[in-house]
Amino acid sequence: GNTGIGLALICSVKGYPLEIVMPETMSIERRKIMTAHGAKITLTPGDKGMNGAEDYVKEIVEKNPDKYYYPNQFANENNPLAHYRYTAEEIINDTDGEIDVFVAGLGTSGTLMGVSKRLKEYNPNIKIIAVEPEPKQGIQGLKNLDTSYVPPILDQSRIDEKVYVNLKDAEHASRMLTLAEGLFTGISSGAAMHVAIETAKKMGSGTLVVLLPDGGEKYISHPIYSPDKCLECTKICKIKNLWTDEYIKSI
């Protein structure tokens, strides 16, 4: 995901050899971006998800401890620390501190842990909502804690509410963001946005911040943005779009 792409970029500049391990179900665009930066890609069985990728990495590192450095984003305290120092401060500054609810997806949990810690220090009344996929609903970038390894950096006491989202709703929200708002997002962003919209409906007033971590460029080959599905979204959401309006008339 984003960490792999970031590591590939840094390693290409520094001249470090990089091996990225990911499930074979991850989008082809992720692989192409990383290999473009010189990374070696190793794929693990898709049915084992990120758990299988983690297990494989631990196995090869244990066999060759002098060869590999394993950043382990799921256990690395620098992951939440970056969001504590920078992401959370940006949120506070950009909202003038007027925050009632923060919504973010749960993947490595680095974003949620870092941001929630800082926001709770700033105002303990800010509500933290974690977004998880429904069990056995694969959403790239997110974890369901009932079916996946629990990240060591996760402290569930910092989460006020968990909300589960299905793949269909996540994909629909992604298309809505792209077609109505011009935000070309990925599926994990759609999942967070779906929960944010449903939460905002219940709030009535106040300020809700939702973090969208995933861009749509990594899903070009995915059916999420197929013409038929985008057309369906414009109808459901009543989005005015010249091209789709003309297309509807033609059929």
From TrEMBL:
InterPro entries: Cys_Synth/Cystath_Beta-Synth, TrpB-like_PALP, TrpB-like_PALP_sf. Pfam families: PALP. Residues 1-214 form the Tryptophan synthase beta chain-like PALP domain. Coiled coil: none annotated. This is Tryptophan synthase beta chain-like PALP domain-containing protein. The lineage of its organism: unclassified sequences, metagenomes, ecological metagenomes.
